[in-house]
Amino acid sequence: MNKHNKHELLVHNILEKIGGFNNVKDVYHCATRMRLALHDPNIPVVEELKTITNLKGALWSNGELQLIIGPDVSIVTEIFKKEIAKTPKKNLNEFEIHYENKNIKQNVAWYKRFIKSISAIFGPLIPFLIGVGLLMAFQQLLIRSGLGSDSTIKDAVLGKDYNVFDLVLNIIASTGFKMMGVIALWSTVRYLGGKTPIAIALGLIMVSPIIPIDGIKLFELGNWEIILKPFHSTILAFILIGVVIAYFQKIMEKYLNSTVNFLLNPFLSLFIGGLLAFFVFGPVMGVVESSLLTAFNWFMGLPFGIGALIVGLTWQPLVVLGVHNILFFAAVTALGQPGANPSIFLAAAFAAAWAQMGATIGVALRSRKATDKSAAVAAAVPGIISGPTESCIYAVNLPRLIPFITGVLAGGIGAWAIGIFGVGLNNLAGLGGIVGFLAYTDKLVYAIIIDLSAFALGIILTVLLWKEEKNEKTLATITTRSFAKEEFLKSKIDFNANELIHLLKHLKNNKNYEEAIKRLEFLKIILEKYDQELTNKINQFIDNLQNKNLDKKLINEIIQKAKLIQSEDQSNLNQIYLDIQAELKNLKILKTELKKYGKSKLVVKNNLEFKLKKLLEKQEDHDAKSFNKNQKLINSNEANKSIVVNSFKNKDSQLDKIQNLETKIKTITTDIENSRLYLSEITEKYYQNFEKQVEKVELIKNKDLSKFKALYFNDIHKLEISEKLINPKVALNQK
């Protein structure tokens, strides 16, 4: 199956899971994610979407369904849009009307709507910024290598200090960055449903070369000069004017006659929009941006690299939340200001990204399964080249949690070093990775050393701290902790007294007083034989509670008396806990047995199956490509026929490899089947030891503890359950 067919299949699978084209309200993409706004968000199930082949992850964020695709996201989104475009327009409109009321009823918090809007506006800008950044990096590369000259140097002379190519290259590279606001205005109006051609025209007016580049001073406001000038390398003013114009256009469309609207809508949009831009929003947002820039520089200038450390520790979690774009574009805007300092913020973010990619490579090195190794490498490579880490996070690190945390920690340390040594980006070049090194001019060597060190630290921490999977002993230990905590197996105080203490301490969070009173009546009867005075105080407390009165002093008195109660039953529970601890130690033997007879063989089998799958895919692609070519060669001369014969010989060689793998898989499968009975017997034996201990607790407490029996069963039989040889037991919560 070729790449295009894989993309089409991916799109069809996505459409099937999200309820078809009729459920799609809007679609766009950022660096690695396809973002969908749906009419009915209840249709898609995220866990089902995650099972789609070639889809690296799926999540809901701020009312959007975000699908992690990777570097091919633009291609997949384009195919997705084409599939949507094939649908009859009439049916699509009918569906939108059908869902109109449902959209109104959706209660989405204002901050989530705001974040969604920001993501929708900034998302389409990312490919533009990547292109502009690479152009600027390419220009810097030519200048540094001596193959080009800087045409912006003061008093530089054309033909002497630089040539026409240098001039044109500077126009291509710098104009895009200066026009960033135009694209932001277009994206804002597009998102809000306004007229995008008018938006582009208004954006071009705001960067008009007719206005003097130094601007025209209007007046002063404190320390700020209010200047009428072109809006180069800024965003906020464009977004704000875009919001105003989009709604202004909708109002005119609603209240004006169609003919009048046709004439006045573009005229008033440009005229009023231009006046508002230059005399209202421009000056106001200029003051706002100056204030933000001052605060931004103060934060990044905190001593000992603290600002950069905070950026490094929070950047990847912000990527998970989907709000990193807001800060990214703020930093890009600051970098584009005249005389701006190198961006330590962006350098710290790039270091954090390198660390997260290192954690992904750490997973590849630590994993024994070829499928996991391949998935980790495939997720990391695009980021290593160009920077985005979404594939690393959602496809590999976050589902395993520890690699994500090690990546965050390594990123914090790398960013801290960036701050301490004052390493900053001089321009924009992609979104990081190897390409991102082109963005450094002053401290390139420092940047390379720190980023690669963060990358290496991410690998080392992940290899040291992450285990591919929890073994039976680890899982049973976790269950034992929960068992001991819930059932008070490890305490000098009687378990009924402990329950009373726990109930009283958490009563303020429990509004169901009737249920609490019933439990207090029961515990009062049980504890009466230990302390009659305690029983009297419980009676007094119950009377108060019936009147909704929580007497804190009385609660403390009851708790202090309950702490003095000890019992033989509690001593027996403590002994059972020690017996369970001994059984946990015995699970080391089970671990060795399972590794010898099951786990190692299963890993080998999975790796062989993965290798066979890849070989079959390769053979399928080769057959598809060579079929037509061989048909033509067969009908030509004898020399070409010999080429066809050789190609068939090569195919026979591939078939031999496939057959050899199939034989190995069959052999090891038989071996695993022969070991299954032994594995079943030994795991059942160890489980029964734990089951007996739980039954002892049931007898003492006169309580059904099937929940913990099920948990221990699933822990001890983990291997058989994971290979779907047996079904897990459902651990129901008991009251």
From TrEMBL:
The gene is scrA. It is a multi-pass membrane protein. It comes from Williamsoniiplasma luminosum. Keywords: Cell membrane, Coiled coil, Kinase, Membrane, Phosphotransferase system, Sugar transport, Transferase, Transmembrane, Transmembrane helix, Transport. This is PTS system, sucrose-specific IIABC component. The lineage of its organism: Bacteria, Bacillati, Mycoplasmatota, Mollicutes, Entomoplasmatales. SUPFAM superfamilies: Glucose permease domain IIB. Residues 513-540 form a coiled coil. It is found in: Cell membrane. Gene3D superfamilies: Glucose permease domain IIB.
